[in-house]
Amino acid sequence: MLRKIVSYGLLAGLVVAVPLCVLVVATHGRPVPYGEWIGYATMLLAFSLVFVAVKRHRDHARGGVIGFWPALGLGLGISAVASLVYVLAWEALLAFTGIDFAAGYAELLIEQRKAAGASAEALAKLSADMQAFKAEYANPLVRLPMTFAEIFPVGVLVSLAAAGLLRNRRFLPLRRM
Length: 177
Description:
This protein is 80% helix and 0% strand. By secondary structure, it is an all-alpha fold. It has a domain at 2-97 and 150-166.
């Protein structure tokens, strides 16, 4: 099962990391409108491999039957590996491109609030908060878990759904020809 966790996890990690790299390089690290939606849609696409892996494991290695906990364990393992690949890809992007994501993110938020008509006092507070955020984000001990926390909860939700659905042997049964 460890082999499945690593192989599906690496594949899911690549599915989410490659578009991330392309998007960040194409936009020079500047946050894009709907970037969060694009990112989370890509994460869901990548984590669809959790469902595929659990179903294949149920059908081929377990004779068409899998319990909730073994299915959840497989899904969480794949999610953890994929999340680590995502974190490593993000760190590599930051290191090799020299992009200052925190500064670009802070600028975007301040611009959005200005456009929405925020008061000078609110903008000053936001600016101070963003300065604190940039200082925190520069610390890898803060940035690494923050990046992991962006993606891993999506994997947990998909793993829970896959384990809950696929524990029922009548849900998408293996069709023998």
